[in-house]
Write a structure and sequence with these properties.
The complex is a heterodimer of chains A (207) and B (523). Chain A is α+β, with helices and mostly antiparallel strands and 207 residues long. Chain A has a 4-stranded mixed β-sheet with strand order 7-2-10-11, with no helix packed on it. In chain A, strands 6-5-8-9 form a 4-stranded antiparallel β-sheet, with no helix packed on it. The longest helix of chain A has 23 residues. With 523 residues, chain B is an alpha/beta fold. Chain B contains 20 helices and 9 strands. The longest helix of chain B is centred in the first third of the chain and has 28 residues. Classes of the chains: A alpha+beta (207), B alpha/beta (523). Chains A and B meet through helix 1, strand 1, strand 2 and strand 10 of A and helix 4, helix 8 and strand 1 of B.
């Protein structure tokens, strides 16, 4: 008994020390140097503009095609590239070419860039400018003359083209704002698809 | 790789030594690391079931905060879940280190090693999802670290990191996916554990009850005394200056963050590949002490004892091709780990690794009796010691006057060796085994005890005075206990005096002459 008690005390003390060590290793304070800066984050996904050459097909041409392949406008083209630029207090911080994802760049373009800032009031200018020019061809006029072969489908085709054009990002977007940020704070510059403009946020996104 | 193994063995012995002094060999958790890992996984599943009821994918942090706010149940169950997951990594680490140090990572154990590496990968992945699920500052840190690695792979249409950028709420589907993986991976690990132990007979999946309940009680006490804190909710508009890092699961985050992403991938893949290659890098030629057991079909009586005793299910009984009506044992060399336990199980001494069959052991003990035991007028105590148990303690026993006879495994020892040693002049025979849960042959001490004292085949003959035979445990770091056990046995021999000629009998009447090696054949 006289030997068992000190031994038990040692066992309890050692076990307690091991448990405290386990807890300490479970919550090791890790300093993140990123927290010493403020940050500007550019993040959005949007569909790039389609640059295409279109030709208006006549009723005779459409009649030669299977019914499910009849479209009034026959187009070929590609998606536009954009120049993304960010200046902080007039100094260029970022300049990058962005384009749609995927091997053919026909997917939405996803932008995610971060740049550190000195905490305090900063003037931020972000621009996204289309690099490739588009030339409207006679055939792509949505108000073209209506034929007889397609009937209602021609109207739906026209509406679909208008919708797609509306979904794609405008040829030029810009934001010029001055924001005061503390260390560890983030300003998010994102694309508002409803207003079709760049916006800056410093708080949680609305649900 | 051998020098690494030796270094690891020194570390294991040092840890064992400290643990034996503190807890004794019966409750040394380092011997039970695999079983403790399984017990902790079970504890994680049980506590996880409660957390699963409370957790909401639509409000992850808030639901965990609600748990944290419940001081009666939620807070400590979450704490136990968290601390058990950390302890699980420690247990697995100890398990890996021990098996590597003891050269138990190659040959027939390759499947166990490989499945163990994959289980460890599942464990880390499951842990990763568990931390991300909480969606606190540490969770988002891990999510971003994972996204950084995954986004360079051309498999996602949209960068994962954009999910956490703040321009839209993190979708519930993300948390649902994490929850699914967090539940499914441990269940998959259950199947993995089955594969992990599939090549061993009678796997021990849980530690002894006192140890099991002691660990559970310790984790509960820790969770109550020092609850696991809940860091602030993740906010994409805040980069916290300090994050509570979990070293067990996220040790890789700081170095990986400093490396270019492909370097980080390279490091991870190289580590995984190296772990998978360990069985190849540590393998030995199957000769000498690593030679698999062979069967002498002429001696095999078909008693079916060696398949029962083999801890690796490496022996099966087959039809004979020599016309005799019995079955004959067959050893699959791909499954045999050369532990030699079959040699101790075979009464006619017809099976065992080359040079370690019962007959080979009799040759050795005869030589020992002739060269050592006979030269002294005083009866001596023969200490047959497992050479893996605690090599430094052999000198302690020598200083006590013991005649040392090392054996590769006490389970390999044939009981006729004990009888022959007594006939050869030993006053008594004490067999020192390693602690039962640390036996490299898994069941050596268990079968030895059963054969010496409980009439398990090949039992020590009834004519042998059991008072002159003793089995004991030799635990590294506990030399005092070894010496004390030896002295106690030696003193118990004093009243018995010297063995009388009547007791000795005719040695050759019980011990078959050794067959020429050339006549042995592998079945």
């Amino acid at each position: 008994m006289s030997r068992a008690l000190p031994r038990l005390a040692v066992v309890v003390a050692a076990s307690a020390a091991a448990l405290v060590a386990l807890r300490a290793a479970s919550f090791v304070p890790m300093t993140d140097a990123r927290g010493e800066s403020a940050w500007v984050r550019l993040s959005w996904s949007a569909r790039p503009e389609r640059i295409e050459q279109c030709r208006r097909l006549s009723d005779a041409e459409l009649e030669k095609r299977p019914a499910h392949m009849r479209l009034r406008l026959e187009c070929e083209g590609r998606f536009a590239r954009y120049l993304l630029q960010l200046t902080v207090d007039g100094t260029a911080a970022l300049a990058d070419t962005v384009q749609g994802d995927g091997l053919r760049h026909d997917r939405p373009m996803h932008v995610l860039r971060e740049h550190p800032l000195h905490p305090g009031a900063r003037r931020l200018q972000a621009t996204l400018v289309r690099l490739d020019s588009t030339t409207a061809t006679a055939g792509d006029s949505p108000a073209g003359e209506q034929g007889t072969v397609l009937g209602d489908r021609e109207t739906r085709e026209r509406e679909e083209r208008v919708r797609r054009t509306g979904e794609s990002i405008p040829p030029r977007l810009s934001l010029d704002t001055t924001i005061t940020l503390g260390a560890g704070r983030v300003v998010l510059i994102t694309y508002d698809g409803t207003r079709r403009t760049l916006v800056a946020r410093t708080g949680s996104a609305p649900p | 790789m051998r020098s690494l193994e030796r270094l690891a063995l020194r570390v294991v012995r040092a840890l064992d030594s400290a643990s034996h002094r503190l807890l004794g060999w019966r409750y040394n958790p380092l011997h039970q690391s695999g079983a403790i890992a399984v017990a902790l996984l079970a504890l994680l599943i049980i506590t996880g079931l409660y957390l699963l009821i409370i957790y909401r994918v639509s409000a992850p942090w808030e639901s965990v905060a609600r748990l944290q706010g419940d001081p009666w149940l939620g807070r400590w169950i979450r704490g136990v879940h968290r601390y058990a997951s950390d302890a699980l990594i420690l247990a697995v680490g100890a398990h890996v280190l021990r098996l590597f140090a003891q050269a138990r990572s190659w040959g027939p154990r390759t499947l166990a090693w490989t499945s163990g590496v994959i289980l460890l990968l599942l464990l880390f992945t499951s842990g990763w999802t568990g931390f991300v699920m909480v969606w606190d500052t540490f969770g988002v840190q891990l999510a971003n670290a994972g996204a950084r690695l995954l986004d360079v792979l051309p498999i996602f249409s949209e960068p994962i990191a954009r999910t956490f950028a703040g321009d839209r709420p993190v979708p519930s589907a993300f948390f649902f996916l994490n929850l699914f993986l967090h539940v499914a991976l441990p269940l998959g690990a259950g199947a993995g554990i089955w594969l992990h132990v599939s090549r061993i007979a009678r796997p021990t999946l849980l530690p002894p009850r006192p140890l099991l309940w002691g660990i559970v009680a310790a984790l509960v006490a820790l969770a109550v005394a020092l609850p696991a804190p809940l860091p602030p909710r993740a906010d994409p508009f805040v980069v916290p200056g300090q994050v509570p890092l979990n070293l067990f699961y996220a040790f890789w985050v700081p170095p990986a963050g400093r490396l270019p992403v492909w370097w980080a991938w390279g490091g991870a893949i190289a580590t995984f590949a190296l772990a998978l290659l360990v069985p190849r890098l540590t393998r030995r030629p199957r000769e000498g002490s690593w030679a698999p057991s062979v069967v002498d079909p002429r001696l095999c009586t078909g008693c079916n004892q060696c398949p029962q005793d083999c801890p690796w299910e490496a022996i099966t009984m087959r039809e004979r091709d020599d016309g005799r009506p019995t079955l004959v044992a067959h050893v699959d060399p791909a499954l045999c780990v050369s532990c030699g336990i079959c040699a101790g199980s075979c009464a006619p001494m017809g099976v065992g690794p080359v040079h370690r069959t019962g007959r080979d052991q009799l040759v050795d003990i005869r030589a020992l009796a002739r060269d050592v035991l006979d030269v002294t007028a005083l009866p001596q105590v023969l200490a047959i010691c497992c050479e893996n148990a605690a090599p430094p303690q052999l000198d302690l026993l020598r200083r006590e006057g013991a005649v040392i006879h090392p054996v590769p495994c006490s389970g390999n020892l044939h009981t006729s060796v004990v009888e022959l040693a007594l006939r050869g002049g030993a006053a008594g025979v004490i067999v020192f085994s390693c602690p039962p849960r640390d036996c490299r042959g898994r069941e050596g001490p268990t079968w030895l005890e059963a054969r010496l004292f409980h009439e398990r085949e090949a039992e020590l003959q009834a004519r042998v005075d059991r008072r002159r035979v003793c089995s004991a445990t030799m635990a590294v770091g506990d030399g005092a206990a070894t010496v004390s056990e030896f002295r106690r046995f030696r003193e118990s021999l004093v009243p018995l005096g010297v063995l009388s000629p009547d007791e000795l009998g005719d040695a050759d009447a019980i011990c078959e002459p050794v067959l020429p090696v050339a006549t042995r054949g592998r079945s």
